[in-house]
Amino acid sequence: MFKAFGLEYKYLDDGRNIEKLIELFESVKGINHSVVLHIHTIKGKGLSYAEENAVAMSSGIAKNGGTALFGTFAPFFQRIYDQISHDLCLNDNPATMLVLSPGIYGMNTNTHIALCDIQMFAHIPNLIYLAPASKAKEKTGLEITVINPRFLTGLDEELLTKLKENHELVITLEDGELIGGYGQTIASFYGDMNIKVKNYGISKAFHTDFKADELLAENGMSVEQLTAYIKKSVH
Description:
single chain; 8 helices; 6 strands
């Protein structure tokens, strides 16, 4: 498959053999084209998480001028907090991390959910967490301003300040945990201003085997619930 994409491919069956690993790495050191290294290991043999090593390696690649790209499913990002904070961000090494299937629309079992990724990473310096929303919109019959924040590691203070001119209510919606989420960051910004803020998010619990729309409704985020709240709150 990799060769079909024009990539060189090397496979090492004994991924725990240090001498063979060094030999493999030496064979690709300094090459001028992309190569895929497929290294086989056996789980449960005292090895560290693969994600930790991958992020540390990404940091090294970026430090030496390479283009580092790493991706894995969102629930596994809890394993690599140290590497993202200390290896990547502390050293200001530019790398791209792909967070796959976060929020309630990702995995839905209590051992494989990612409802608090914002809380884990939003406060780390030198980290930009992009989270663009889809273009889908629900028709509610209300005149509302819809804003897509795009990134979760900072605030557009100019935009938020401008909203005060012709808005009396700001509602934040997120498909992750409410406590410590992005919405509460916005509420903190408006803390001493004359504008009402209502935050919606998922309750703090080990949710499992859920349907996304049902969990949203349990936390007040169905279209009908939100429409009713807005009509009741805006004068």
